Amino acid sequence: MKGNVLVGQSGGPTAVINSSLAGVFKTAKERGFTKVYGMRNGIQGFIDEQYVDLSDHIKNELDLELLKRTPSAFLGTCRYKLPEIHEDKAIYERIFELLDKLEIEVFIYIGGNDSMDTIRKLSDYSLLTGAKQKFVGCPKTIDNDLAITDHTPGFGSAAKYIATSTKEIICDAMGFSYKKKNVTIIEIMGRNAGWLTGAAALSRGEDCDGPDLIYLPEVPFSVEGFVKSVEDLLQKKDVVVAVVSEGIKSEDGHYVCENTAGSETTDAFGHIQMTGTASYLASVIQKDLGCKTRAVELSTLQRAAAHLASKTDVDEAFNVGGACIKAADEGSTGVMVVIERVSNDPYESSTAVYDVHRIANAEKVVPRKWINKNADYVTEEFLDYVRPLIQGQYSPVMVDGLPRHLNMTLRNYDWSRNAKK
Length: 421
Hints:
alpha/beta, Rossmann fold
């Protein structure tokens, strides 16, 4: 008789992170695991014995379908950095005591770079102590910066949302163009990797010229050069739309957002709070060129827009979750499941597993050859890479005109108390 599965979610959520969770749950049940436990708020919550039996919350196929369409982290997430084993052995003893208590056979962690570091540390400890559990990482991040894998679940849907929103923002800007010079700057998530920012170029087509300028963090950014580029464009047209990564930085390595308040805040991994890049640049343009400016920060909408999720992304996220269970059931540990691109036209992908030590703490950035010579746009090769990942729609389940989601905390909510008397 097989033991139990423990699954958690960590780091920033995506529009399809719960599709991976659904894939873990469904495949674990199909493969005969007794129970599937979910960590509440990742490894941090688990250390405090916060976990649930997912069978209490996913009762049928409808629940599974709702879960696949639910944004954010159904189980709750965290940004918690496990110490190295030699720094605090007691915390590992605590974790493995709980794993044994719950008769956990497989540990799945859905997350990005920092989450794969957690898998690395736990699998290393299990090898040192001869523990029986298998540890498998399930990739997730809209940033698309995990090494080895062709791309990450979550990226395709975020790219689809960004390209769509960019088209709509350009339409809005054009509506105010009569005898008025205006500049709109769109800020996209991406600390050191510009995959998401580059996706804004997908908005270009027969009905839209796309943004005029796109700046990725892979190449040093000059504020003075940016102002000059905008000034030159305004000599030819009334509306300029620029897209910038939140993580663009100057030649000396300082983030542009460090010119704004709030960048002093850091998370558990020492990452500074990224915000205000577009606002700062808009203020510089307004001051230097005297034209109307607008800063648009898509912020968490990029990772929460499940209503615009890519079907390709939802399906791959689900399949990757299932592949994690399959890999562990067949003996793999200390690995992450990766997506391999089989062909681009027609698009096909498959899954494989790689040693998590080759992935944890590594960062995949946009190749320089996929950024144009002036470093102010992406190339067709970049677009050919991204375009297949945004294909297809995964329609929400609509109730009273709005998408219906699966919400653990509201599962037993008494909706009648909100009814009009």
